[in-house]
Amino acid sequence: DGGITQSPKYLFRKEGQNVTLSCEQNLNHDAMYWYRQDPGQGLRLIYYSQIVNDFQKGDIAEGYSVSREKKESFPLTVTSAQKNPTAFYLCATRAQGDTGELFFGEGSRLTVL
Amino acid sequence: GQNIDQPTEMTATEGAIVQINCTYQTSGFNGLFWYQQHAGEAPTFLSYNVLDGLEEKGRFSSFLSRSKGYSYLLLKELQMKDSASYLCAVWDSNYQLIWGAGTKLIIKP
Description:
The complex is a heterodimer.
Chain A: E1 4-7, E2 10-13, E3 19-25, E4 31-37, E5 44-51, E6 54-57, E7 64-66, E8 76-78, E9 87-94, E10 103-104, E11 108-112
Parallel strand pairs in A: 2-11
Antiparallel strand pairs in A: 1-3, 3-8, 4-5, 4-9, 5-6, 7-8, 9-10, 9-11
Chain B: E1 3-5, E2 9-13, E3 18-25, E4 32-37, E5 44-49, E6 53-57, E7 60-65, E8 70-75, E9 84-91, E10 97-99, E11 103-108
Parallel strand pairs in B: 2-11
Antiparallel strand pairs in B: 1-3, 3-8, 4-5, 4-9, 6-7, 7-8, 9-10, 9-11
């Protein structure tokens, strides 16, 4: 099946630990995005990548890092520098030349204990 | 600054019609999206408008007025499964996607 796979779906972390959220896609889409969603707020862009080996900071990149070594993969690391990491994280892709519709993974819910 | 406004919550009755409004102020405009998001799940695409007017897709329709910076999503023949949040999002002039906070729609029997 074509789609976007995020893992893990649920993750618990102790303060001071780094965690990495996985995002894999087999849609052959160039652009990939990481969003954070908090209750009562719109989706906020963390990082995005339009091509392999290149990525740009979004609105709330501090405390996060990414890599784009393969077209299919765009992992997000939540570092200990992120002061309030408990949130729902969404990975998305977009095909170039289309209307710009985003396709989302199922999300990863991170809770810091 | 860039801003998208939508009501926080709406309530409607099963079988009825509901209209969810979205107003936007962005630096440029390259299209407006509506997404549906059930609690704890990922958003799913509903509609895309780039020209003024009404786009109809089954029970759902979306309207755009670029001169007014306004859109609405119209849901007809409401079903219980339509209980969800509805997110409005706009591509600005740099093709950055600006998101509204979403409207939580509660359907009552």
